[in-house]
Design a protein that fits this description.
Elements lengths: L22 H31 L22 H21 L14 H21 L3 H11 L10 E4 L23 E7 L6 H14 L5 E7 L11 H10 L16 H5 L17
Parallel strand pairs: 2-3
Antiparallel strand pairs: 1-2
Helix pairs in contact: 2-3, 3-4
Length: about 280
């Protein structure tokens, strides 16, 4: 057995001792079984690579099955493309184990860079999925998803219940409406989301990955925005009061009665009026 070969016991060693009484016959049987041994050793070697192949390190091993050398009829570039497609398929399969579909926005002009991105996700997936329901985990997952690395690109998560003006709200027996319960504001710097498609993707991300019991509103902050210290309840509460996610009725456009209705019917086409005074 050569160094590095999988542990394997030749099939002939499992035969009863009676097969060894005739040396010539035993040699012939050994020769036949050696052919099966060679095939089985190859399969075991492929199985030893399987844990690496079904992992973020899949690019470092050949996929199980292909033999050494270039398959007939394929150019080196075609073989490279085939290997690349195989790795992409494996990464997509592994992402599916986390009920996650690799987004199209992660695809880059350079296929190798795309694989690097997918590999980075798979290396972090277990931790991201374990912590994504926590404030810190949600922000970490948001930043990784949108490749936010600079300090002024990282969003701020404000949990409203931490900034109640009345800390008796929600106490036992309290039936008052608590405007701070189950509400979260995510302040996202507009710097990294200047494109509309990217902002829409961010909103969809929040809708998909925010805990189901929370009402999360995404607020875009302009460049130069400085959030108040998060431990200053009064200033954070003041900030939350200035954020509006809808237009008040008094500030909106009111659709009144159409002026034509007040002026009475008019024949605008020169065809007369319908019975009852309506227009043609």
């Amino acid at each position: 057995m050569t160094d590095g070969a999988p542990l394997y016991r030749p099939a002939v060693d499992s035969l009863p001792a009676v097969y060894q009484e005739d040396a010539a016959s035993f040699e012939q049987v050994s020769g036949y079984l050696a052919l099966a041994d060679e095939l089985l050793r190859g399969h075991l070697a492929a199985l030893e690579d399987l844990p690496a192949w079904l992992s973020p390190e899949a690019r470092g091993v050949r996929p199980p099955g292909p033999t050494a050398g270039l398959p007939a009829g394929l150019s080196p570039q075609q073989e490279a493309d085939r290997q690349l497609a195989a790795v992409e398929g494996v990464f997509a399969e592994l992402a599916g184990w986390f009920a996650f579909k690799l987004p199209a926005s992660w695809r880059m002009p350079d296929p190798e860079a795309t694989l690097d991105r997918h590999r980075d996700f798979l290396l972090r997936a277990a931790r991201l999925w374990r912590e994504r329901g926590t404030p810190r985990g949600f922000i970490a997952w948001f930043c990784f998803y949108f490749e936010l690395s600079e300090v002024d690109e990282v969003p701020i998560l404000l949990e409203h219940f931490k900034y109640r003006d009345d800390h008796t709200l929600g106490a036992e027996g309290d039936t008052r409406d608590d405007a701070y319960a189950h509400r979260v504001s995510l302040l996202v710097p507009l710097k990294a989301f200047d494109a509309y498609e990217r902002r829409r993707e961010a909103v969809q991300f929040v809708a998909r990955y925010a805990p189901a019991h929370l009402l999360v509103r995404v607020c875009w902050t302009a460049e130069g925005f400085t959030p108040p210290p998060l431990d200053d309840e009064a200033k954070v509460r003041e900030l939350l009061g200035t954020i509006t996610s809808f237009v008040e009725a008094d500030d909106g456009i009111h659709l009144g009665k159409c002026p034509l209705d007040e002026a009475g019917p008019r024949d605008r086409l020169g065809q007369g009026q319908l019975p009852g005074g309506g227009q043609q």
